[in-house]
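Folds vary. Our protein:
___
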Amino acid sequence: MSTTNGQWYPPEWPERIRLLSAGELTPVTPRRAATVLLLRDGPDGTDGQDTPQDAQDARNDRNARGGAGEHSPDGPDAPERLDTAPEPAAVPEGSETPPEGPRNTAGGADGLAVYMLRRRASMAFAGGAYAYPGGSVDPRDERMVTWAGPSRAQWARRLGLDPSEATQAQAIVCAAVRETFEEAGVLLAGPTPHTVVADTTGDDWEADRAALVARDLSFAEFLDRRGLVLRSDLLGCWARWITPEFEPRRYDTWFFVAALPRGQRTRNASTEADRTVWIRPGDAADGYDRGELLMMPPTIATLRQLAAHGAVADALAAAADRDLTPVLAQARVENGELVLSWPGHDEFTKHIPGATGGPSA
């Protein structure tokens, strides 16, 4: 577990790193996954959202009836801007309603806030750690859906995939939207290419959400049944992290940013989480630095990056130029100790004394 600040560090890692260094551990192929940093301007407001202060009480009033999908534990070359489509979260010409709904697009004293959930302490993986809604791609996410925004081929290039992997790119985007609905009750889709549903509460929505979680209903079937268009233009891709090679469950995870749609409300719809909060990225990072909030490297890294932006609109605009080179941890044996590092993120480097000798990884 964590020994410095709030970084999550499982006790079995040293031994697995030793095995990998000695060539006795074969890395498993990571599954593709997506997670979403849901944003709004200011942690406090009049829309009934959770705040860091009231989330614990508020969750007791919610009915978290559905289970979450399999979570990503971690969540290219110079990224290409999607110039032929609206920038993520831009209000398209002639919109019936503003799709993204930031509370204050000019920012303000409060700055932007991000929606986070805390994994239950009983979870076998990263119990007690704060994370974002997300999970692995469902093979059925490749099924055709009514689509708005950048083309699937454009998304493939943006995600660092081969242009021929347009269908796989759709699956990653669909997973991001689907998991956000499954775990937070927020849906980035609407009846037209320029609108977003204003309310996802009620028994009928909950029944569909539960069916998605149980995999009784595919996301394509859900959208088709309700006559909805997936709003890929409301997403911006922020980062890409790959689970270390010594982990038995690995994920290749894309981190997206999106604004909370106007009128929609977040709720803890995941049985894997025991708390949800809206919190400023800087405040969350401070809590991590004090050792009060437990997080994995991708989570705290994205929070520190978001803290540089004063408003949701700023963060969404910045997403178009983010470098999506995958971040993959490196492990080696050096001078009798294990060294674990994440390229480009020196703060996460770990030196673990007492390692037996062996070849460098």
